[in-house]
Structure formats: structure tokens, C-alpha cells
Amino acid sequence: MTELHAAVLGVLQGAGEFLPVSSSAHLALAPRLLGWQYQGLAYDVMLHLGTLGAVALYFAKDWLKIFRDGFSAPRSPDGRLLWLLVLASLPAAVAGVLLNHLAETAFRNPLWIAFNLVFFSVFIWLADRRPRQTLAESALTARDALLIGLAQCLALMPGASRSGMTIMAALFLGYRRASAARLSFLLSTPVIFGAALLESRKIAPAQLDAAFAWGLGAAFLSGLAFIWLLMSWLQKRDLKPFLAYRVALGAYIFWLFR
Questions:
Q1: 187 close to 88: Cβ distance less than 8 angstroms
Q2: Contacts of 188 (CB under 8 A, 6+ apart)
Q3: Which end of the chain is more exposed for a tag (fewer CB within 10 A), N or C?
């Protein structure tokens, strides 16, 4: 793995983690398409640490307020949000432990990835077209948090997209696009941290080299850029361009590996 290869994977991670196009699909497919050696799921997950740093920095003020109010004023909007995010993270934590083997094997088949890219695009599109998307993140309830958390479990399948599934669920529940994205990004913080902690034991020390540092740096910087891009985009626009890309990529993968 060269520094350039690692940096490309880092950019794919940064883009795919926050845009609803599936970082895991891109990290699994890129080595096959470009003729590189695949480093394994554990390496892919460790690259998520770059995007963890990006989302933690971008929402640093929000997280400080959420944590402060979560313990000092748990009934306030931000205080409630902390515990609702904890609730929403529980399904993914359980699914990640129980389905980890499938995530490393069957789920990474290129045709399965292509199917997920196309199939879930239909449901994201339906959610994006839902009328009366009026709720802000302050309206989050325990029921909504749990449903969004359950939707996040689908992201164990590359091609589904963690941000895509959580934004989709929030849109179906009536949240505004920008609010759905903010909830998705806040929810990514504990999930990425937990996944990296789970997979870190599988990383060989030799893999944590200069090239890996390039990958982390690229994931961090691109992650910051793509968080800003999607948050800005969803203030006035819909998800159609990202869905068109998903379908086109899925069709190409079907054609390539048929």
C-alpha cells in the first residue's frame, strides 16, 4: 500500500461516509477496480478514524453543549439529545457484534454491493420526496431515535450507506433534510468510534505505517469538506444527484462482475 493508494482510499472514505453513497462500498470496490491489494475490513474501519476526527471537529461546539446538558440539564433539548443518540446507537452496536462475520465476507460480494446501491436508492428517493418535512432535530423522540438507529443497522451491508439509511429514516419520519443530515452526522460519532474499537484488534502493527497516516489525513480533510458540502447542499436542494450516482455505479458494477 503506497501513500497515494492510501490517500485515495482516505478521500473515498471521507466522501462516502457523509454523502449517501456508501464508503464501505467504495473501499471494498476500489482495490478490485484499480488492481490494488485489498487491506481488509479492519483497515477500512480504521480509516474511519479520520472521518471520526472530522465530524468531531465540525460539531465540536454542538458535542460540548450536548454532553454538558446531557448531565447537567437532561430534560433540556440538547440534554435529551445526548441520551437519544445513545439509544439510537444501541441497535448498531448489537448488530455490529452479531453480524461482523457476514460484514467481512458475504456482504462484500461486488454483485451484492451493486444490488444494495440500486435497491436502497429507491427508498432514499421515496423518503426524499415525502411531503411535510418540517421537524427539526429538537423534535427527536425515543421512538424516532430507535427507528433511525435500526435503519443504521442496514449500513452493515456495503452499498446501503450509513448516512443514506439514517437520513432516509429521518426523512420518512418527517424531519427536514438539513436536520436529518445533522442527526445522521451526530449519530456517526459513537458508531464510528465503536466500530474502530471493535476492529482495532485485527490490525497488524505493520499496517500502521506512513501510508496509513496519509489515508487518515485524507479521510479527515475530505470528511470536513464533504460534511460542509452536504449540509450546505441540503439547505435548498434534494438528494437526486447522489441517487443518480448510486444507480449509475450499481449498474456499472453489475455489468463489470456479471
A1: yes
A2: 17, 18, 51, 52, 55, 162, 163
A3: C
Q: Which helix (H) or strand (E) holds 14?
A: helix 3-18
What is the rounded CA–CA span in Å between residue 121 and residue 154?
13
DSSP 69-108: HHHH-TTSHHHHHHHHHHHHHHHHHHHHHHTHHHHHTGGG
Q: How confident is the model at residue 103 (pLDDT cuts 50, 70, 90)?
A: low
* Residue pair 163/185 in contact by the 8 Å Cβ criterion: yes
Instruction: Please provide residue 227's backbone torsions phi and psi, each rounded to the nearest 5 degrees.
Output: -60, -50
Q: Is 170 left (phi over 0), alpha (psi -120 to 50) or beta?
A: alpha
| Residue 25, C-alpha cell as written in the block | 462500498
Q: Are 64 and 56 in contact (CB under 8 A)?
A: no
CA distances from 70 to 19, 53, 75, 91 (A): 28, 21, 8, 21
HSE-up of residue 158 (Cα within 13 Å, Cβ side): 30
Q: Which residue has the cell 446538558?
A: 69
Predicted local distance difference test score (pLDDT) of residue 106: 62
pTM: 0.94
Cβ 52 vs Cβ 193: under 8 Å: yes
What is the spatial distance between Cα 42 and Cα 95, in angstroms, rounded to a whole number?
Answer: 16
SS3 state at 135: strand
CA distance 214 to 47: 10
